[in-house]
Amino acid sequence: AAAEKGGYDYFMLKEIAEQPRAVADTLLGRFTEQGWIMLDEVRLSDQDLRDVDKVFIVACGTAYHAGMVAKYAIEHWTRIPCEVELASEFRYRDPVLDRSTLVVAISQSGETMDTLMALRHAKDQKARVLAICNTNGSTIPRESDAVLYTHAGPEVAVASTKAFLTQLVACYLVGLHLAQVRGVKFADEVAAVVSQLQAMPAAVEAVLETMEPVRHLARELAAAGSVLFIGRHVGYPVALEGALKLKELAYMHAEGFAAGELKHGPIALIDQGTPVVCVVPSPVGRGVLHDKMVSNLQEIRARGARTIVIAEEGDEAVTPYADHLVRVPVTPTLLAPLVATVPLQVFACEIAAARGHDVDQPRNLAKSVTVE
Ligand code: G6P
Hints:
Blueprint: H1 11-17, H2 19-27, H3 46-51, E1 54-59, H4 61-78, E2 82-86, H5 87-90, E3 101-107, H6 113-124, E4 128-133, H7 139-143, E5 146-149, H8 162-181, H9 187-198, H10 200-208, H11 212-220, E6 226-231, H12 235-250, E7 253-258, E8 275-279, H13 287-302, E9 306-312, E10 324-328, H14 337-354
Parallel strand pairs: 1-2, 1-3, 3-4, 4-5, 6-7, 6-8, 8-9, 9-10
């Protein structure tokens, strides 16, 4: 078993370390020399894709958080309305679907029963279903009209890490492809994103190389009663994912919030020393968001929070409000979850280990949930 873990103590650590390769493999062979997205396995004609007037993303757990990020990217690049919904809620709500709806089902295992039931419901309503999946020939891709495989390789640890990053990549590819096929409003931006995506494996690698202080901090905080996570825009799903990892692995109370919602309730939770992980948007591009986050930081700091700030290199505005500062490489806003999530994975893994838990096999959880 030690050999299977490639020298790491846990599969999760091995899988975290494999992320640059997983991201690179998921990008491999999916671009033409001219920078066009080429998704040959997606057996939906360009005409089908041009007819899409609504996108619904369905998924569970970590895959749902990837879907939340996808919504920001797909709507921005394609201007097609996109909703994301927990698979377990989707079909019981009687969603409005038809032939021109594209339903994207995201699942690492391809066997999650709630997601499978959601896709069957979508097909009954004549929607077209595209699966984003990590497991060749599993049920969800077999029952879908089309599939885009993530190439994370087998994921063994129950808590998803490399599969999540590759789900993000697949979602970006779907968004960019839809944008290109439909004739883009943001053609220049899409072309730029295509080249920025190619730089992401190196960016993830750079984050991994700077994780020692995060491990140290995790050990310091291992006895905390609760940890809060806040983010804005695509940083919001990253905050939710950070909190989910901590619940799954460390059995700690952890909650993620949209930073703008703080004042509507969650700020009452903040007490002297409450650890709050803040996923700060890039100051470049969407500067307004960044400034709003800096005021959130000020507010929670004033109420006693111990702030753990994930911010871009060179973002000095956050420094006065950060008890702990984790730097990530400068990354376009929509792609930032690929780098911002990594420290949160390391953080949760290390806290769980410090608390003496089985990182790879958390209590009460299964790698794939094949009951509804
Ligand atoms: C379980 C796993 C999670 C995973 C979720 C969805 O809850 O513990 O890590 O995110 O299922 O799994 P899927 O295979 O559909 O991505």
